[in-house]
Design goal:
The complex is a heterodimer of chains A (112) and B (112).
Chain A (H helix, E strand, L loop, with lengths): L3 E2 L5 E4 L4 E7 L6 E7 L6 E7 L2 E5 L2 E6 L4 E6 L8 E8 L8 E2 L3 E6 L1
Parallel strand pairs in A: 2-11
Antiparallel strand pairs in A: 1-3, 3-8, 4-5, 4-9, 6-7, 7-8, 9-10, 9-11
Chain B lengths: L4 E3 L2 E4 L5 E6 L6 E7 L6 E7 L2 E5 L6 E5 L5 E5 L8 E9 L2 E6 L3 E5 L1
Parallel strand pairs in B: 2-11
Antiparallel strand pairs in B: 1-3, 3-8, 4-5, 4-9, 5-6, 7-8, 9-10, 9-11
């Protein structure tokens, strides 16, 4: 079993839809949880960062962490074609500067 | 303010050769991490440098080595290249004890 599991998709939604992206993990020592967005042939771009359990909102993006279920989610409201990218979840034990363990990434396509 | 920069953008090498990739961190950052991202996979942590020393290492063989310079820039060296080393190599920088990791655009290495 991999440490971090993420459905690679692809996921296709119409413009304006609410998108839900998820990851599960097995290491209960993970405390720091991040979502990165990666456009084709580019480096990952940090979207959201959460410490421990709870919710965090930033504009159209909401990140949720449920440590009891070892499950994290990213919601995108009012999705736009410019949101089309691969979304990577990442987590670590010892801080967001440390060794990040990534999921495989979910490829999202938002159709106009 | 320049973000994380990497050079070269693309590189083609032959099996058995050696390669050096370079990274300049974001202004104000003192810690550099290197990741390998195979096609269709999430990034995998190679190692991290801080104060010119390797501080953490992932599950990569000794063929992968690095260096950090006094100006915080870094190099990744790979010896005896294998076909399986073909990947996008990402550099990420951060400020020790603060904030998150910011990624560069990557160097795409092809081994033939």
């Amino acid at each position: 079993q991999k440490e971090v599991e993420q459905d690679p998709g692809p996921l296709s939604v119409p413009e304006g839809a609410i998108v839900s992206l998820n990851c599960t993990y097995s290491n209960s020592a993970f405390q720091y949880f991040m979502w990165y967005r990666q456009y084709s042939r580019k480096g990952p771009e940090l979207l959201m960062y959460t410490y421990s359990s709870g919710n965090k909102e930033d504009g159209r993006f909401t990140a949720q962490v449920d440590k009891s279920s070892k499950y994290i989610s990213l919601f995108i409201r009012d999705s736009q074609p410019s949101d089309s990218a691969t979304y990577l979840c990442a987590m670590s034990e010892g801080g967001s500067q440390g060794n990040l363990i990534f999921g495989k990434g979910t490829k999202l396509s938002v159709k106009p | 303010d320049a973000g994380v920069t990497q050079s070269p953008t693309h590189l083609i090498k032959t099996r058995g050769q050696q390669v050096t990739l370079r990274c300049s961190p974001k202004s104000g950052h003192d810690t550099v991490s290197w990741y390998q991202q195979a096609l269709g996979q999430g990034p995998q942590f190679i190692f991290q440098y801080y104060e010119e020393e390797e501080r953490q290492r992932g599950n990569f063989p000794d063929r992968f080595s690095g260096h950090q310079f006094p100006n915080y820039s870094s190099e990744l060296n790979v010896n005896a290249l294998l076909l399986g080393d073909s990947a996008l190599y990402l550099c990420a920088s951060s400020q020790r004890g603060m904030g998150s990791q910011y990624f560069g655009p990557g160097t795409r290495l092809t081994v033939t």
